[in-house]
Q: What sequence folds into this?
């Protein structure tokens, strides 16, 4: 046998072992502690070993059980960040994608793979009311936002050839609630974070369009070059949706690019299109199937309306990658419309999962998440010791413990941080946090197809029980 080769029979045996462990994990997920019972020292001891010189053969797989035991069990009571449980049919697609090991560079590298990716991108665009947009799958919302901003910068202040050095780098606008991916992207593109203007929000954490207009006018008066506005369709903290139609009017009036960061929320347009009026007015839009389409991680998407602009931004082809076909289908190359060259076959999991469950399955799951968030909001509102800190537009619920009627903001912040640290290791529900107007909040974000009513109803009693524990000095 050649080095590294394994027989088809050996592969089947190993695969059966992995599949059987996966099925065991899924069957026991609900009963698992969400917070793995482990420590830094424990995982270093087990996984921080030296690289084996001799292969371990089948023994290599035995450690998978240890990995499983030390995984954060994202069951129906996991509401941290913007992440769900992962859809298992899609996971099978991921396995098969790795076996085929197709490279999504261009049609000639993978006729089926590239066609499937183009198809699922079209499906995504159509499903959120943006028919006619095209785009690519990405590793997540961060690269999708970066690519959208790169297109905006190239349109208004072309820098691909001569760079931005010394040039008027241009201004980008986003609400105070924008996700960190945007200031990161602005930095990486050489625009500089000082040229990102944070626009104030209303009480519901939505960008104030009049403030945006004012900021653009002020910058123009100072001789600056506005490039782009980033509107959020679901802010990471509270799920607020910026007023997309008004923002688009302002962007058009000033001739600037409108990118929508829909990484968290835009896919909810499948179930609640009325909340997303104006989404289709974006020049580019990021959305994350690995968030609200329940896909296993590594599945974001950038959509845009102007393919020529994507090519102007991203096409730069070495002679070694030259297209050999003029055929519009067979000559297609994703790398001329993306910052990446080699890319995994992300479309397969999405394609399989969407075909298996149908759009109606996803619409129903997203609809349940929206209802669950309202259910949780009501439960928080009924609890005298809890205080909700933001409206629930989508599926994020921000709240805190009041501590006492007279407690200072500082005391409340300290107590709620301690509360989160107490809730997590109890392992029953998983929350993350947000900060709103300097208030530390507990945050439940429900993008989880496994959540049941009872799971959502477990949150408030669990928070109160953890608070009780702290007060009792346990
Ligand atoms: C609004 C928003 N934008 C962008 C991102 C970044 O997405 P990713 O983690 O897929 O890079 C997130 C992640 O939570 C988000 O909520």
A:
């Amino acid at each position: 046998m050649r080095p590294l080769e394994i027989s088809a029979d050996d592969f089947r045996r190993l695969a059966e072992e992995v599949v059987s462990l996966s099925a065991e994990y899924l069957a026991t997920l609900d009963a698992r502690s969400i917070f793995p019972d482990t420590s830094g020292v424990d995982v270093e001891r087990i996984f921080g070993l030296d690289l084996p010189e001799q292969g371990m053969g089948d023994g290599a797989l035995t450690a998978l059980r240890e990995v499983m035991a030390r995984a954060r069990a994202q069951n129906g009571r996991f509401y941290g960040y913007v992440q769900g449980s992962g859809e298992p049919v899609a996971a099978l697609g991921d396995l098969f994608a790795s076996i085929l090991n197709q490279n999504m560079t261009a049609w000639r590298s993978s006729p089926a793979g590239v066609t499937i990716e183009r198809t699922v991108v079209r499906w995504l665009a159509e499903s959120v009311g943006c028919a006619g947009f095209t785009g690519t799958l990405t590793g997540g919302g961060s690269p999708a936002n970066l690519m959208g901003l790169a297109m905006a910068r190239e349109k208004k202040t072309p820098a691909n050839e001569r760079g931005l050095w010394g040039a008027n780098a241009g201004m980008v606008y986003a609400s105070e609630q924008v996700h960190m991916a945007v200031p990161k992207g602005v930095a990486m593109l050489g625009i500089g974070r000082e040229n990102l203007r944070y626009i104030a929000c209303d009480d519901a954490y939505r960008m104030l369009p009049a403030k945006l207009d004012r900021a653009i006018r002020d910058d123009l008066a100072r001789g600056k070059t506005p490039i782009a506005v980033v509107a959020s369709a679901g802010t990471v903290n509270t799920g607020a949706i910026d007023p997309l139609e008004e923002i688009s009017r302002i962007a058009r009036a000033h001739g600037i690019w409108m990118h929508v960061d829909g990484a968290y929320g835009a896919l909810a347009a499948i179930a609640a299109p009325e909340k997303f009026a104006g989404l289709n007015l974006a020049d580019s839009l990021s959305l994350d199937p690995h968030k609200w389409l329940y896909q296993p991680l590594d599945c974001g998407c950038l959509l845009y309306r102007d393919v020529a602009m994507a090519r102007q931004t991203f096409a730069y082809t070495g002679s070694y990658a030259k297209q050999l076909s003029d055929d519009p289908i067979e000559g297609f190359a994703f790398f001329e419309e993306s910052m990446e060259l080699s890319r995994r076959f992300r479309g397969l999991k999405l394609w399989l999962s969407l075909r298996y469950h149908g759009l109606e399955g996803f619409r129903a799951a997203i609809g349940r998440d929206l209802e669950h968030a309202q259910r949780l909001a009501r439960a928080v509102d009924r609890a005298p010791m809890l205080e909700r800190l933001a409206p629930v537009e989508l599926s994020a619920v921000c709240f805190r413990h009041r501590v006492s009627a007279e407690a200072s903001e500082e005391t409340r912040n300290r107590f709620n941080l301690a509360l989160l640290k107490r809730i997590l290791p109890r392992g029953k529900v998983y929350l993350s946090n947000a900060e709103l107007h300097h208030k530390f909040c507990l945050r439940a974000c429900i993008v989880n197809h496994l959540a049941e009513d009872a799971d959502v109803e477990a949150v408030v009693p669990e928070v109160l029980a953890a608070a009780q524990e702290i007060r009792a000095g346990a």
